[in-house]
């Protein structure tokens, strides 16, 4: 949908895990995520797996903290058009997306993620690992390590984690096919024993047709499945994950030619000040036949900046609640743009709780998550 502003920052690794998180008291489910869902069906298929590299050492995870989202819902799977918990009941996850790890290296840390779980009452964090723009392509080992550390930190809190292979510029995911295969083979093998990780294989494909995106997905998903056969995979859609709307198409190109793989969902992104009735009508219609996951949205324009349209954002989130579609807001950062939920300088400190550290968009989403 949009290009993020190019920022510069010194790359540093995420902080180490804080001992004793498994004993943290976490809130129970809230009313917003317990509404009754509609019923429907979706297509499914299979793929041919590829072997992960022998260098990826599997991690044996500890049990999720009692009362945490992962403790409540267990391993997730796709059932019909919904994301379902271990008991087969539809569930709506609500959370936050990081900004690029290279742009805001200090904003995902033990203190901020603990606040996200216990103060904000979120269910998951999306870890946005840009491929270009100073990201993974410049230091594959370093960025893989940062993703691993974020997964471990969030997992200790009982949060779900969406690992986002943040394809944006260039918009053709096939340009990064080899990088994606290598990255997902390694991290999927390392975290295969976890029940809380979802894999997002292409953030916002753009400038290419659906056939290209589908081809990419059908080559990357088998790599993940070879190591992790059970986790949910999120597939980006045409036109900056707009189901093609931003490039003059619609969801029918996906419903007519779905990815040949099971346990997958298709992503939709929106920015509330730019995307209104047309996009909401598309989501409402598509949700009848496709499993959707809003892995990124903002309260401002598609640039990620400008005035927040909180009325439109509220209308969007009310719709997603009714449809039981999970969502993450962009972005868990302290930058100068209006998408940042923290005031400038917050990520250099240790206090991420309450409202005094928040921007307008931050107060909006924290209030919504705490409902």
From TrEMBL:
One of its GO terms (molecular function) is cellulase activity. Residues 1-31 form the signal peptide. GO terms for biological process: polysaccharide catabolic process. Residues 33-67 are annotated as: Disordered. Pfam families: Cellulase (PF00150). It comes from the Bacteria. Keywords: Glycosidase, Hydrolase, Signal. SUPFAM superfamilies: (Trans)glycosidases. Residues 33-65 have a biased composition (Low complexity). InterPro entries: GH, Glyco_hydro_5, Glyco_hydro_5_CS. The keyword Ribonucleoprotein does not apply. Its EC number is 3.2.1.4. It catalyses: Endohydrolysis of (1->4)-beta-D-glucosidic linkages in cellulose, lichenin and cereal beta-D-glucans. Residues 84-334 form the Glycoside hydrolase family domain. Belongs to the glycosyl hydrolase 5 (cellulase A) family. This is cellulase.
């Amino acid at each position: 949908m949009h290009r993020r502003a190019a920022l510069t920052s010194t790359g540093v690794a995420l902080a180490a895990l804080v001992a004793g998180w498994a004993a943290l008291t976490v809130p129970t489910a809230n009313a917003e995520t317990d509404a009754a869902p509609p019923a429907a069906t979706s297509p499914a298929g299979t793929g041919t797996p590829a072997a992960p590299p022998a260098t990826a050492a599997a991690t044996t995870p500890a049990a999720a903290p009692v009362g945490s989202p992962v403790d409540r819902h267990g391993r997730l799977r796709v059932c019909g058009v919904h994301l379902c918990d271990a008991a087969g009941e539809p569930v709506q996850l609500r959370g936050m997306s990081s900004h690029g790890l290279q742009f805001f290296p200090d904003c995902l840390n033990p203190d901020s993620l603990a606040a996200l779980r216990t103060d904000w009452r979120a269910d998951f964090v999306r870890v946005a690992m840009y491929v270009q723009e100073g990201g993974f392509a410049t230091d594959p080992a370093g960025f893989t390590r940062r993703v691993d550390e974020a997964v471990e930190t969030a997992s200790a809190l009982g949060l779900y984690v969406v690992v986002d292979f943040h394809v944006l510029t260039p918009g053709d995911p096939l340009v990064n096919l080899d990088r994606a295969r290598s990255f997902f083979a390694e991290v999927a093998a390392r975290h295969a024993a976890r029940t809380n990780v979802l894999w997002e294989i292409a953030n916002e494909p753009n400038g290419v047709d659906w056939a290209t995106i589908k081809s990419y997905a059908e080559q990357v998903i088998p790599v993940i499945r070879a190591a992790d056969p059970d986790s949910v995979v999120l597939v980006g859609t045409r036109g900056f994950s707009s189901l093609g709307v931003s490039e003059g198409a619609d969801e029918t190109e996906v419903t007519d030619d779905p990815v040949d793989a099971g346990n997958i969902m298709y992503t939709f992104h929106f920015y509330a000040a730019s995307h209104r009735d047309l996009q909401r009508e598309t989501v409402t219609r598509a949700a009848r036949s496709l499993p959707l996951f809003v892995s990124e949205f903002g309260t401002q324009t598609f640039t990620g900046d400008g005035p927040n349209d909180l009325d439109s954002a509220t209308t969007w989130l009310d719709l997603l609640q009714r449809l039981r579609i999970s969502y993450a807001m962009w972005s868990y950062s302290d930058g100068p743009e209006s998408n940042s939920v923290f005031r400038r300088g917050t990520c250099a400190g240790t206090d991420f709780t309450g409202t005094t550290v928040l921007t307008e968009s931050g107060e909006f989403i924290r209030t919504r998550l705490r409902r």
